[in-house]
Sequence to fold (259 residues):
Amino acid sequence: MKKLVAVLVISACTASVFAQQQPVQQQPQPPRWSPASTEWYTPVPPKVQPGVGAKPPSDAIVLFDGTDMSKWESSKTPERGSRREAAPWKIVNGEMRIVPGSGGIQTKEYFGDCQLHIEFKSPPAENYNGQNRGNSGVFLQNTYEVQVLDGDNNPTYVNGMVGSIYKQSAPLVNAYTKNGEWQVYDIYWKAPKFDSNGLVEPAMITVVMNGIVIQNNFILKGDTPYTGLPTYTPHGRLPLSLQDHGTEVAFRNIWIRNL
Fold:
């Protein structure tokens, strides 16, 4: 019995020594990257001077600065062979005001992806309520509406209130201040993409109102019709347009940046 135990002990020691002599299998190491291999130096982004106060950034296209409406024209479809009429709204004290019943206006220039800054002011509430109070709209690419409406104690359907993507998305919060005060929209727009087969990528929008995010990367289901469901119809770059909905909404300090 003692001999058997001794043999087992010697065998175990021999196996242990043999195992220690075997080469250790090294795990493959990931490639070593130099910091410079993930750096690039061109193209260098252009220098843009930020706006201060009401002054727009240096690369912005100023659409209305309070002095003229030369960047705008009537949205009404002209007669065949005719050019669009001049924008029919009026300038009062540096504000661009809707002339109710004259029709909407649109930019002469066409846009796609963009950053838009626009300020608006609702007219006196008087006895108007709901959709009849301070109604207008900002139409990206002449098709997709961000609602303009008096939001001061003015109940209406929430996907049609101020800051909504009309009939598609209610705002996250009501950031409207008071009737008669200027409201500020900063809109970040990613245009829809189409190919020969139709929609490739839907539109996406972020809206900041008075410094508060009220639409956060909302993906649009299509256009924003008053009646029916949204649909996409292929298009390219199109004008920015503002709606005449029968009330004397005022606008100022409108600028846009192509993205």
About this structure: Residues 120 and 215 are 18 Å apart (CA to CA).
